[in-house]
Amino acid sequence: MNDTTALLPMRTGEIRIHDAEGFEGMRRAGRIVAECLDMLVSEVKPGVTTKYLDDLVREFVLDHGAQSATIGYRGYRHASCISVNHVICHGIPGAKPLKEGDIANIDVTCILDGWHGDHSRMYGVGDVKRKAERLMDVTYEAMMAGIHAVKPGARFGDIGGAISEIARLNRMSVVEDFCGHGLGRLFHDEPNVVHSSDYGTGPELKPGMFFTVEPMLNLGRKDAAILPDGWTAVTRDRQLSAQFEHSVGVTETGFEIFTQSPRGLHTPHTVKQ
Rounded distance, CA 200 to CA 115, Å? Predict the structure, then answer.
């Protein structure tokens, strides 16, 4: 585990409320992972291995004075998760090269001064088929719909309600086996942020809450399976899956995205090479 682990607070079962210092810490950590994923835009192309991309992530995080939150986490050995095509999440970087038409989610979490920045995006590899392009578009739209539901007095169920509505209108399914989570000085904290839920349900959103919104949408059924490596989650029907993730905070009037791309490269078509 990272050397900061012993200094981190423990989960209490309560949703933490953070102050201005916390917002500033999350902005700094979020910017590093956003800049890291910006850096990868020109690197994701046919013939490149996911291990090569993971090495770039590892170097970038260290060069910017941060630590990887995933290296050593429950025995995980990589600085990113890279999930290709029908892999839903937690794909392990390796020696297999990306090929023309693949789509890949790259998920990076760093720790800077004790604060966690957690962010993922979809990347198109070369010429991507329209159905894959549309899946990425809809998944991004669903994430943003969930984020725009964030404001004081709303409910966590409003986030999943907005995401589910977008998926349903586009005849796609929302993966229910995984969810967003609270974060800050802990990688995974309260609450669980469910991406398939009903409007008006769940705890009330209050200023100072920090969490991720990270929906996974499938072209086929929602069902997931875990491979024998204990990490990689795939669609049971082997149809394509996509995911986007932002770290956000609840403000007095709405929300703040901590992981917005400084170069405006966060939408599906700007990341396709």
Answer: 30
- The conformation of residue 185, written as its DSSP 8-state character, comes to S
Distance between CA atoms of 138 and 136, rounded to whole angstroms? Answer: 6
**What pairing do the DSSP bridges indicate for beta strands 67-68 and 233-235?**
unpaired
- Within the chain, residue ranges assigned H as helices are 20-39, 50-63, 130-148, 156-169
CA-CA distance, 133 to 181, in Å (whole number)? Answer: 27
Would you state the structure tokens that stand for residue 100, as one six-digit string? 């023309």
- Parallel, antiparallel, or unpaired: how do β-strands 233-235 and 241-243 relate? unpaired
Low-confidence residues in the chain, pLDDT < 50: 1-6, 270-273
Say if CB 116 and CB 105 are below 8 A apart.
no
Residue type, 94: G
Tokens of 2: 């990272």
For the record, the structure tokens of 249 come out as 């905070």
Q: What does the block give as tokens for 81? A: 């998760």
pLDDT value at residue 266: 75
Determine the distance from the C-alpha atom of residue 7 to the mean position of all C-alpha atoms in its chain, rounded to a whole number.
Answer: 25
Distance CA 61, CA 57 (A): 6
Q: What is the per-residue DSSP string for 220-262?
A: S---EEE-TTSS-EEETT---EEE-BEEEEE-SSSEEETT--T
CB atoms within 10 A of CB 252: 8
What number of other Cβ atoms are within 10 A of residue 169's Cβ?
11
Q: For residues 64 and 154, is the Cβ–Cβ distance under 8 A?
A: no
* pLDDT in the model for residue 12: 83
> Other C-beta atoms within 10 Å of 76: how many?
16
Confidence at residue 88, expressed as pLDDT on a 0 to 100 scale: 98
